[in-house]
Design brief:
The complex is a heterodimer of chains A (115) and B (114). Chain A is mainly beta and 115 residues long. Chain A has no helices and 11 strands. Chain A starts with a strand and ends with a strand. The chains are: A mainly beta (115), B mainly beta (114). At the A-B interface, β5, β6 and β10 of A face β6, β10 and β11 of B.
C-alpha cells in the first residue's frame, strides 16, 4: 500500500503567476482534502473532493480551485498568486466511508514561495 | 463554530519523564478529535483519534489521549518521553458543517532533552 504523494516538493513563483500542485491519494482512498499551512500556524482547510465532486470548502477565495480525477488523484490550482500564498500545501486522503470517523492521511507537502 | 485551542506554544520535558500536551475544544454536538505530529519538513502523521467509547484512547508510538467531556479537553500524554518525540503536535476537531473538514489548533512544539 502506497502513501499519499505530492509534487513538486518545492516551488518558487512570482506574484501574479499561476501554480498547479499535484497529489496522489493513498491506495483505495476516494476523498482528498487540501490544506494550507503558513509558517508557524496549523493547517487551514481549503477544500475537499469526494468522487470528483467538491463537497466542502474553507474560507479561501475562488482563485483557489481544484480537480479530482477518476483515479482519485487531485490538483490544486492557485491563480494570481499573492505573497501571502507562500506556505506549505498539504494534501490528505481518506477512504470516504463513515465520514465522521474517517482518518485523513497526509502527504509530505509542497512548499510554495511567492516572490 | 467548532474550534480547538492549544494553550502552550512549547512544552519542555526531560527524557524518561511523562509528557502532556494540552488541547481544549469547542463543538456543537459530538466531538470527533484527533492528534497529529509533524516532524521538520514533513507532512502530518496521524497519532490517534476519539470518536466514541472509552475516554482513554491509545495511539501510535506509545501516545495516548484522555477525553474529558466536562472539561472539554483532549490532552495528549506519554508515560516516558523520548528525545525522538521532539516535534510539533497538532490537536484537531472534525467539523461536520459544510463538508467534513478538519480544524487544527495552532500547534505545540515539544522539546525532549536528553
Amino acid at each position: 500500500e502506497t502513501g499519499v504523494t505530492q509534487s513538486p516538493t518545492h516551488l518558487i513563483k512570482t506574484r501574479g503567476q499561476q501554480v498547479t500542485l499535484r497529489c496522489s491519494s493513498q491506495s483505495g482512498h476516494n476523498t482528498v482534502s487540501w490544506y494550507q499551512q503558513a509558517l508557524g500556524q496549523g493547517p487551514q482547510f481549503i477544500f475537499q473532493y469526494y468522487r470528483e465532486e467538491e463537497n466542502g470548502r474553507g474560507n479561501f477565495p475562488p482563485r483557489f480551485s481544484g480537480l479530482q480525477f477518476p483515479n482519485y488523484s487531485s490538483e490544486l490550482n492557485v491563480n494570481a498568486l499573492e505573497l501571502d500564498d507562500s506556505a506549505l500545501y498539504l494534501c490528505a486522503s481518506s477512504d470516504g466511508t463513515g465520514r465522521v470517523q474517517e482518518t485523513q492521511y497526509f502527504g509530505p507537502g509542497t512548499r510554495l514561495l511567492v516572490l | 463554530a467548532q474550534s480547538v485551542a492549544q494553550p502552550e506554544d512549547q512544552v519542555n520535558v526531560a527524557e524518561g519523564n511523562p509528557l502532556t500536551v494540552k488541547c481544549t475544544y469547542s463543538v456543537s454536538g459530538n466531538p470527533y478529535l484527533f492528534w497529529y505530529v509533524q516532524y521538520p519538513n514533513r507532512g502530518l502523521q496521524f497519532l490517534l483519534k476519539y470518536i466514541t467509547g472509552d475516554n482513554l484512547v491509545k495511539g501510535s508510538y506509545g501516545f495516548e489521549a484522555e477525553f474529558n467531556k466536562s472539561q472539554t479537553s483532549f490532552h495528549l500524554k506519554k508515560p516516558s518521553a523520548l528525545v525522538s518525540d521532539s516535534a510539533l503536535y497538532f490537536c484537531a476537531v472534525r467539523d461536520l458543517t459544510g463538508g467534513f473538514k478538519t480544524i487544527f489548533g495552532a500547534g505545540t512544539r515539544l522539546f525532549v532533552k536528553a
